[in-house]
Amino acid sequence: MPDLRKDEKRFYIYFRMSIESFDEILNLIKDDIRKYNTNFRESISPEERFAITLRFLATGDSFYTIGHSYRVGFSTVSSIVTEVCQAICRNLENMYLPEPTEQLWQKAEEGFRNQWQFPNCIGSVDGKHITIKCPHKAGSNYWCYLNKFSLVLMAIVGPDYRFIAVDIGGFGKNSDGGIFETSNMGKRFEENLMNVPKPKNLPNHDEPCPHVLIGDEAFSLKTYLMRPFPYKQSKTDISKEKYNTRLCRAITRPPRT
């Protein structure tokens, strides 16, 4: 670590994170991941525990490989990664992914209206498959159409490609639309519990329209979610084709984020 800190570029390549960001996060979680020395062994410092976790998250190397690099057992690496990730979630979740407020949705709507000419849109929803090693006795639940085992990160993204809300853990075999509908945030949209602003007029129209999410063909049409018209319909109706074009332009996909 001391040698890496002398070279910012090498540090970033190794951890996929700047020194400043590393220290900022470490200061937020160090009390939760600190261990104390005993009569039998010297503890691993919070800085090294965080470094081990970041190296795993940045590269996906095996616990054995990372343990060899840091001269600790692979079972120790496993417990460190679990504990540090839990500490990151506890301390940073409310800071960087708070409960969406009406003001947050309004700001997102302004961005979609001004940047992508799609008024009343408050977010783009999509899923991202995250490759995993198949859990024991999981059957085909995690096998996805990409011919790999995966978990799905379902996310709502703003016009600036920043996450607004996420749900992680859907089976890779399920469709994005199905995962969204059964997710906590999908259920809360269905029950009108997501602090969505009240309907408002579209430009040059007098009738209030609801604020909506936008998604691709995998999602079902809802009062709070718009999707493209089927291809056959859009090819025979110029207005539907224009709508699809505008919708596809406005979709800021989580995979890009």
UniProtKB/TrEMBL annotation:
<dbReference type="GO" id="GO:0005634">
    <property type="term" value="C:nucleus"/>
</dbReference>
<keyword id="KW-0539">Nucleus</keyword>
<dbReference type="InterPro" id="IPR027806">
    <property type="entry name" value="HARBI1_dom"/>
</dbReference>
<dbReference type="InterPro" id="IPR045249">
    <property type="entry name" value="HARBI1-like"/>
</dbReference>
<dbReference type="GO" id="GO:0016787">
    <property type="term" value="F:hydrolase activity"/>
</dbReference>
<protein>
    <recommendedName>
        <fullName>DDE Tnp4 domain-containing protein</fullName>
    </recommendedName>
</protein>
<keyword id="KW-0378">Hydrolase</keyword>
<comment type="similarity">
    <text>Belongs to the HARBI1 family.</text>
</comment>
<dbReference type="Pfam" id="PF13359">
    <property type="entry name" value="DDE_Tnp_4"/>
</dbReference>
<keyword id="KW-0479">Metal-binding</keyword>
<keyword id="KW-0540">Nuclease</keyword>
<dbReference type="GO" id="GO:0004518">
    <property type="term" value="F:nuclease activity"/>
</dbReference>
<feature type="domain" description="DDE Tnp4">
    <location>
        <begin position="125"/>
        <end position="247"/>
    </location>
</feature>
<dbReference type="GO" id="GO:0046872">
    <property type="term" value="F:metal ion binding"/>
</dbReference>
